[in-house]
Amino acid sequence: MSTLTPQLTTDVADHWIARWDRQQEGYLPDREERFTALVDAVEAGAGRPDPLILDLGCGPGSLSARLLDRLPEATIVAIDTDPLLLALGEAVHAGRDGLRFVDLDLRTPGWSAALRLDRQIDAAVSTTALHWISGPELRTTYAELARLLRPGGLFLNGDNFSVEDQAPAIARLDRSLQERERTRRFAADRPEGWREWWEAAAADPALASFIAPDAVDAAGSDHNGSESGLLSTHVDALRESGFAEVGTLWQRGDNRLLCAVR
After folding, report:
1. Structural domains of the chain in order of their starting residue, each with its CATH number
2. Per-block average pLDDT, block size 10, for the chain (262 residues)?
3. pTM to 2 decimals?
4. Is 161:253 a contact under the CB 8 Å cutoff?
5. Cβ(74)–Cβ(68) below 8 Å
């Protein structure tokens, strides 16, 4: 049972989610490979065929849908605070067993209590989302997450993590490799960007009532190099929160699947 009421038509939502996926994949060519590695890890490490999973910063539900495709007995609670992305996910996945969207801000202390879960979770997942949370707020978020996870439970976070603070020369070289790869890939055609997607969505009358006032401005913000984009910030915060092990399961350059075991 969903906590939101779908108000968009499925056709409109399908169109915008497909466009969302294209712009994400344009700048994250290994997005699907990272998704597969994450879902493989959940399937191998959840410990049961019907795990309870949180999707943190779920967006329109791209990862949640892939998890349910692989683990149809799972229960997934998909959390985000953006009204448009939640509405798109709700419209496309309305009525799908095992998936519930929740409007919650992970930066607000006490967010976990609002979920009203009846047991500890087996896994939490996130992709390209938690770098938006500042370092101090991230420590609070991870501390609450640790209390929700059962002993041995998994947290899997796929994102671009910089090692600028620990290995600046390697970080610079990695950026150079990425720039060269983008130049080759976009030689013929540059894909739609993040801000361009938001600007187009804001111009669609069907979506107007779901666009937050600052959504387009926020889409243009540059979070590269922010404290929460550093690998060390996430690793340190997870260890401080009581996770027994923290390490990288999959990696291509600074694109990593970070794993923490409770």
Report:
1. 10-261 (3.40.50.150)
2. 60 94 88 97 96 97 97 98 95 92 95 94 97 92 97 97 95 93 82 89 92 68 62 96 97 96 97
3. 0.91
4. no
5. yes
